[in-house]
Amino acid sequence: MYTFPNKLRNLALSFMAIGFVGLVYGFISAPKTIEEAKAIIASNHEEGHGTTHNNPETHHITDVNDQNSYNDTNHNESEHKLTDYDKSHDAKHDEHVFHQLSNKPWAALYVAAFFFFMISLGVLAFYAIQRAAQAGWSPVLYRVMESITGYLLPGGIIVIVILALSGMHLNHLFIWMDPEVVAHDKLIAGKTGYLNIPFFLIRGLFFLSGWSLYRYFSRKFSLAQDLEKGISNHKKNFRISAAFLVFFIVTESIMSWDWIMSIDPHWFSTLFGWYVFSSMIVSAVTSIALISIYLKSKGYLEFVNDSHIHDLAKFMFGFSVFWTYLWFSQFMLIWFSNIPEEVTYFITRIEDYNLPFFGMLVMNFIFPLLVLINSDYKRKNYFVIMAGIVIILGHYVDVFNMIMPSAVGDQWFIGSAEIGGFLFFLGLFIFIVFKEMTKAPLLAKGDPYMGESKRFHY
Amino acid sequence: MNDKIVHALYDDDDVLLSAIKTIRSEKHHIEEVYTPFPVHGLDKAMGLEETRIAIMSFIYGCIGLSVAVLMMNFIMIEDWPQNIGGKPSFSYLENMPAFVPIMFEMTVFFAAHLMVITFYMRSRLWPFKKAENPNTLTTDDKFLVEIGIHGNVKELEKLLKKSGAIDVSIIEKSK
C-alpha cells in the first residue's frame, strides 16, 4: 500500500494556498467598472510594457474580429473603429475592454480547471483503450491510471460549476449566454435551439455522469478482480470499457464544442473534437509517465521496468506528432482558404498571441520530436521527465490559446490569476490523485495479463 | 585452405533461441543463422551489434526535408512565382504552410527509400544475386545455425543434439 508522503501533501496544499491567493488577487484586481478598466488601460499605456496589445492598430483589427462585423451586432463597433480610428477609446470600446478585463480572472480559472480535468479524462480514455484492447504491457500501470482518474469527478464538478456561474451571468465568458447579444446577432439566434443555458448545463451533467459511472464501475471491477480467482470481473471491465469508448468519443466531441468552441460562437471547425482529444491524450499519457517515474524513484512500482517507460514515451512522442498533425490540418485549411469568418480565429491568435501561439508549436512538437526521437532516450527517466514537463506546459498553453483569445481578446497577460489558477489546480490534482493512490495496492495483482505485463520487455 | 563448419537444423524458434544461448555460453562461434522469418530477440541472443540504420534514417529524413525546401523555393518562389488564392509567392516563409505537406512527404520518401537501399547494400543484396542460404528448408519452416569448428567436433555435435537440433551435419567449406 502507498502512503501519501507528508512532504508531497504539504507541497500540494501550499500550491493550492498560493494559487488560491493568486486567484483571489486576480478577481479583486479585475476592474469592477468601466472607469477602472480605462484606468488600467491608461496605466498600461504609460508604462508602455505592452508591445502589440496596446497598439491602436491591433485594437482595431481584433475588435472587428471579435464582433464579426459581417453580422448585425447592435454595438456597431466595427464602423466606429473605421471612422473614429484614432479616437479608439470611445465609450463602446471602453465597455468592450471592460468586459474583456473582467473576464480575465474567470478565463484564467476556467483554463486551469479545464486543463487538469482534461488530463484525468484523457487518462480515463487511455485506460479504457488498454482494457478494451486487453493490452498485455500496461496492467502494471492500471493503479496509477485509476488514481489519476480519481480527479475526474471533483475536477468535472468544478468545471460544471464554473459553467453554471457563467450561466448565471456572473461573467461574459460565453457571449451566447447574454440575451442582449443573441437578440442582435442572427447567427447566434439561429443556434439557440442548441446553445441555450439549460440544455448546455444538462448536456454537461449528462457527459460527466456518464464518464464518472464508467470510472466508478471499472475501478470497482478492477479492485474486485484482485480478490477473485476467475476472470469474471476482468471480462465485465472489458465490456464496459468497449461501450465507454463509443460513448466517450461522441460526448468528448460535443463537450469540446460546448465548453471551448462555443466561447467563440461564430467560428467553427469540424475537427475541433479530435484536436481537443489529441491535446487531452498526450497530456494524459505524459502525466501517467511522470507520476510512474516519480513513484518509481520513491521505491514504489518495482514491477515497472524501463520497457514500460519506453512504451509510455513512445505514446508521448506519437501523440505529440498526432496533435501537430491535427493542429496543422485545422490551421492550414483555414489559412489557405482565407474565408473571413474562419480566418479571424487565427488572425487574432497570430497577431495578439504570437508568442504563446508559436511557442506552443515549439513546446508541443519540435521539442518532444527532437528529444524523444531516439529510442535510447525514451528509456532514460531524465529525458522523459524533461520532455514531459515541456509537453504538459505546452498543452496548458494550447488550452490557453483555445480559450483566452475568445474570452479576453488582446487584453491578456500572464498575471496572478493565470499563475494562481495553474498552481491551485495543480495542487488539487496532486492532492486528489495521490490520496486516491493510498486506497488500493499499487499492483492490480488479479489481472489475468499481469504476468505478461511484468515480464514485458522491448 | 579447407575449413569445416557445422550446420545444425532446428524446427522451432523458441528452441532455436535457447540453443543459441547454450552454444554461445560454451564459447562456440556462430557464423550465421538462417531463418524463414524474423525471430524476435535473435539479434540480442546472437550478440550482434545494434543496428545504426535508425541514425541513417534520421539523416536521410533531414536530407529529404532540405531537398523539399530547396525544390519548393526554386519552383514556387524563384522560378515561376504565382498568385494563388490571393497569396502571391514572394517569400518562402510566408507561403510555408502550403509547402508543409510536400516537406513531409519528401522527408518520408527519402528516409524510406534510402533506408531500404542502405539495408540492401549493407546486407550485400542486389538484383539477380544468387541466394546464399545453404539449405532451402530455411525458406520453408526450418532454422539453420552455422557454427565454425575450432575444437572437438564430437563434443559440439553432442551439444547441438542436446540443445534440440533435428539434424547436424559437418560441411567442408572451401575458402
Q: What characteristics describe this protein?
A:
heterodimer, A: 458 residues, globular, B: 175 residues, Alpha-Beta Plaits, 2 domains, two-stranded antiparallel sheet
Break the fold down into its secondary structure elements and pairings:
The complex is a heterodimer of chains A (458) and B (175).
Chain A: H1 6-29, H2 34-47, H3 56-67, H4 77-83, H5 91-132, H6 142-149, H7 152-167, H8 179-183, H9 186-189, H10 197-227, H11 232-259, H12 272-297, H13 306-337, H14 340-352, H15 354-372, H16 381-408, H17 416-437, H18 450-455
Helix pairs in contact in A: 1-17, 2-5, 3-4, 3-14, 5-6, 5-7, 5-11, 5-12, 5-16, 5-17, 6-17, 7-10, 10-11, 11-12, 12-13, 12-16, 13-15, 13-16, 14-15, 15-16
Chain B: E1 2-10, H1 13-25, E2 30-34, H2 42-46, H3 53-79, E3 83-84, E4 87-88, H4 96-122, E5 143-148, H5 153-162, E6 167-174
Antiparallel strand pairs in B: 1-5, 1-6, 2-5, 3-4
State the end-to-end distance of chain B: 6 Å
Strand order in space, largest sheet of chain B:
2-5-1-6
How many separate structural domains of chain B?
A: 2
What is the β-strand count of chain B? Answer: 6
What profile does the largest beta sheet of chain A have? none
- Rg over CA atoms of chain B: 26 Å
Poorly predicted regions of chain A: 48-86
Round the mean pLDDT of chain B to the nearest integer and report it. Answer: 89
Strand content of chain B: 15-25%
- Helix and strand succession of chain B? EHEHHEEHEHE
Determine the N-to-C terminus distance of chain A: 28 Å
Q: Which two chains have the most extensive interface, and how many residues on each?
A: A-B, 10 and 8 residues
How many individual β-strands of chain A? 0
* Overall geometric form of chain A: globular
Going by helix content, strand content and strand pairing, the class of chain A is mainly alpha
Largest sheet of chain B: 4 strands, antiparallel
